[in-house]
Give the backbone structure.
Amino acid sequence: MISRSPDLFKFRGVVSPRNLRSFHHRHPPPPPAPTMSDLRPPEHQVAGHRASANKLGPLVDGSGLFYKPLQAGDRGEQERAFYEAFSAHAAVPPRIRDAFFPRFHGTRLLPTEARPGEPHPHLVLDDLLAGLQAPSVADIKIGAITWPPSSPEPYVAKCLAKDRGTTSVLLGFRVSGVRVVAPGGAVWRPERPELKALGTAGVRRVLRRYVSSVSGEVADCALAAAVYGGEGGVLSQLRELKAWFEEQTLFHFYSASILLGYDADAVSATGAGGGVRVKLVDFAHVAEGDGVIDHNFLGGLCSLIKFISDIVSEAPETPPLAP
């Protein structure tokens, strides 16, 4: 779904020789394309289609790269065009680009199990969870409106029905996927139908459970101070991102998600933040900002910050250390 012509992201100044030199300096060509034996579906994927024998899905190579297949129709080209424009845009602060967005390494034609003998184009990105030994992950789709302008009516109707059936319209965000690793290695991963059915109280419960140290149904929020609070915690990073969205008028991020991640083993062992990560992902529906603030994304982001801030204020200040 695109909101403009295929030239959507040919912003003024983006494709200048200076910007292109800067882009290639920041993003050197990726290493040689991996073989099928090097690739596997991400173990910690919590949302989106999972790669299988009959379905395309993201892959990782174990060396820090993430391969996302270009989606069908205009969506794949839209996302590729966004990455190319965003990576070279002189008006995007380097701190924002480096801290909150996946690094873009170009595209690759890769063999896939779903289509033997037919290499498929993939975006080559950083694996955002690389280096975390026991990743606890949450995928949170931001915005009360998840379709870009000029989308065809059937697509708008489909998105609106889904948004109204979840908390997107009510809260400005919805939890699309979550995976929590408890001490001892137990994993809590609710099914998608359960997440889609969440109301306000359910979303709060899931966000509390995400930073709990127990594997049962009780959410003790023992890790909230280490993961959500403090310097470099989720709240600090979300507020930095919010400050940019209060000013940026370059892009409108429809149906994009915020990916949260931390190393559960490190947090439990040290009582401090374990590689807390806050990243934006999924850009197949980004539109030009045309000088207007992205109130749809900003509103959802503010709502998420309020939910997490309330959890931190109610939680114990110091997490228990693992034995």
